[in-house]
User: Fold these one by one.
Assistant:
Number 1:
Amino acid sequence: MTKTMKNIDSIGHLRGESLFVDDIITKQNTLYGLVFDSPIAHGKIVNVDYSKAEILEGVVKIFTYKDILGVNQIGGIIADEELWAEKEVHFAGQPIAFIVADSEAIAKKARSLINIKIKELPIITSAKEAKEKGSFINAPRSFRSGSTKESFDQCDYIIEGETFSNGQEHLYLETQGCYAYPMENGNIKITSSTQGPTQIQIATSKVLGVSMHKIEVDVIRLGGGFGGKEDQATAWAVMSAVAVQHLKKPIKHVLNRHDDIRMTGKRHPYESTFKIGLTKNLKIQAFEAEFLQNSGAAADLSPAIAERTLFHATNSYFIPNVKTTVYSCKTNLPPNTAFRGFGGPQGMFVIESAIAQAADEIGVNKRYIQEANLIAENDKFSYGQIATKVEAGNSWTSAKEKFDLKKLEKDILNFNAENSRFKKGVSLMPIAFGISFTNTPMNHARALVHIYQDGSVGLSTGAVEMGQSVNTKMIQVASQTLGISSSKIKLETTNTTRVANTSPSAASATADLNGNAVLKACKLLMERLRKISSKMLSVDLDSISFENDFVLIKNKRSDLSWEKVVAQAMLERVALTENSHYATPQINFDKTKEKGHPFSYHVYGTAITSVTVDCLRGTYKIDAVQIVHDFGKSMNYGIDLGQVEGALAQGIGWMTMEEIVYNKKGQLMSNALSSYKIPDILSVPKKVDVIPLETKGNEMAILKSKAVGEPPLMYGIGTYFAIQNAVKEFNPNYKLKFHSPFTPEKVLMGLYES
Ligand code: MOS
């Protein structure tokens, strides 16, 4: 009875009734916070003069590091990030103080009255420069398998090159924000737009110098996260909590778009080099890559993101000899952070570039090299995990057949022969994305299920709803397991007092982890209710099940309703609440050896992308993206399809049009929607076809329905290479470059270079 449910938020969103942080009805005496941030990317703070701002009417207090009763530290993985800068600033946009006033407008006015003197220090903006100067976040990491050195000696072709992939602004519709207010006894409640409520609880307790149990974090839903609110929702909540601690008044702090874009980190830009070796029959024997990750001024999640780059450096290919190294380079940009794919896309862009360069030099179509090296059953990934239930070959072959690649290639050949101004290009993009937090201890979740005495159900999990419809999936799991209609089940807010010590909603793993906890809790409740039913009906326990709000006897509906069984359970004093814990089995990873089995499974798929380039203007249109995707056994196809389409658009945006520009002073030039372009209805593919790969599903996934949040983003990488192929059609002298985004300006230069 896997009935497809509509996203439970559809109607609320459509009517504008869904609540986001900025919609919360504020309490009496609410004050408003605003961050004063550094205008300079690197320097010593000589003096900050708050005097004019402080005397402005309506300004209540300006908070600085001096007001912190605990530690001035919000770094998660590494303690290297001050909440408010003390002596030095390390990026433009770094918070220095927090103005609290009667209104946002007053706070803004006050901000303009603060005078700061900074003695400027040298600024690093590129990863390469950071590496040259030895400026790193932590020690580099390397994955090795086989011996690339020996293998290269036996290769017929050895190709080297370099790539750059730019960052990406999350541009969640809802900007960062929180609403914090005092409870009794110094307790504080924070409603935040965060993917990681526990992260906020931990950081707030440290900065305020109080225990975690004094801080309650509640999340209703997010207007988008995309990784940008995994770690970077924390600072704003903590600042507000400091103000609550001192003023004992509610504080609201919702960033405006300019402040948000300027002060928050983005997807990491990567500068990388590669060396790839192949045999005459196009088998890749060896691959080396060095990734320079532009981490920004503090660690944030960079080390974990760097690690995921290594995990995905060979994408869906089997390469026997691999040596990959990643450096997290410390620069004077805002700390870069999680963004859908979490370093995976950056790694995959490099191997795809290496294959494209190799194909170009050898003189074959890139897809023959891709096809000859797809990972197969029992092949080993460079990190030691044996590939099982592999769908790389299946999805590849299926995409070629279902979308008739032969005909498409022939049509494009004809089109290009007949047209001189417009050229078409096509590319194939396979993906293999590992599911689980690569940090094994994070792979756990809990669910709290209450059956109320009228038969309605309240469901709490650690999952954060951010538009991915995880709440809908949780209700589906409960509804299916309890055999009751979804309308009887309410999904509660995500709250640290109901479900504690949660991992952030990230790594595409939220539905798997929390869903399995829901499943477990509901099964336990079901056992009790089945026992009661069997007594009430005087039939064997084995013959009892629940469906459509009624008890079934040997799969035939009885007259006994769910409500009656629940009422009887109350009379018999049977527990109608269950709290279950789920931890992903089987996974492990040994960082000292860089080997293990970090992923519970992989998601596979193949996209065929075709584009048309206007060779006079350098502009292009994406004609179609045709995808065979491995959903496993999708539990909600409407939702999953939405994830594929959205991720694809985001991947295409990253690869083609979203251009982040910092100047040499480390200041963000692309700081508004006038200068930063994301895909709109006119730039997305004219046609997106998605066909689910036929599989039995994966036992490790919730109800065999595979994780779907991040993997499809990487189909967007195919667009880069389709455009490249079209440019090459027009200009045979074009020398392949791997420098994303492939903007129309770069296309135009490529079309006319000699
Ligand atoms: Mo996601 S990029 O794992 O928050």
Number 2:
Amino acid sequence: MNRTKAIYPGTFDPITNGHLSIIKRGLKIFDNLTIAILNNPQKSPFFPIDERICMIKKSIKDMSNLEIDTFDGLLVDYAIQKKSNVIIRGLRALSDFEYEFQMSLMNRKLNREVQSIFLMTDYKWFYTSSTIIKEAAGLGGDVSGLVPEVVNRKLKKIYAESKNA
Ligand code: PNS
């Protein structure tokens, strides 16, 4: 088992500055981080998987020791397949706790070798999420500063196009 490597899983629909904050913190603890994007079309993501990958790639272009990958099925199985037994998750406000607690207990039931580690997001991103950012952008709100510039541009373009359609 490679103890220097952790998995940072999520939907990343799209990546936000909150995610980037967790990635940077994760890299202070682990030598390598795999950003593992859930590829489950049944969950009807807003951005297709290739666009999510592309936005992440551009957002982390100045960072090293990162791998981007996709997964489907059980996260613990994916972690073992990647020879890692650490899952990193970000915690924001209290509302995250119940969901994360449930998920980590289920993951531990499924495989006791895989450990979940929680890192606090920078306070600046405590109340943001991909969902609320998409909602605000969809209503014409300015979400710059909450997401990487590549995501901001993409959201603006999509919503401008849908307005003109
Ligand atoms: O960014 P998200 O949507 O909060 O990420 C959730 C994710 C992808 C980490 C979670 O849905 C997941 O691990 N899915 C894989 C399926 C799985 O392993 N389920 C059992 C444990 S809950």
